[in-house]
Amino acid sequence: MTTLAAVERSYTTLKYGYGITLVLIGLDKLLRTNLIADWDGYVSGLALAVLPLSAGVIVAILGLAEIAVGGMILGRLVRQGALLAIATLIIIIANLFSLGLYDIAARDALIALGLLVLIWLTDARRASVLTNVPAAPSPH
Fold this sequence. Notes:
By secondary structure, the chain is an all-alpha fold. α1 packs antiparallel against α3 (about 55-75), α1 (about 5-30) crosses α5 and α4 (about 80-100) packs antiparallel against α5. It is elongated and about 55 Å long. The chain is about 75% helix and about 0% strand.
């Protein structure tokens, strides 16, 4: 397999994995089905004190945002969607720390790292297409 083929396969896996997952989680939050988690329980007292909204409204807004970001990643705005997802995750990680949920915060940090890799792969694909330079063959 060539380097370009490996980049393409990795990019496609991350693009669809993140895009579909964000849409599904967003729908769970927006429709209040709580099939994945009881999302209201993840809204900290600090967030409730700072924002003049109920936990349910905060979760619904996040759900709508996740659906939009997932759609961006699934569409043509992969880089921009991944950047928004990372920014959202930073806020979520801070919220999780305030709740003492360090294990979930660590997981979300790794998810953000994967989104950063998706951005790098998006840039690598674009650079390859723009320069039309064949990638070096893989050593395997």
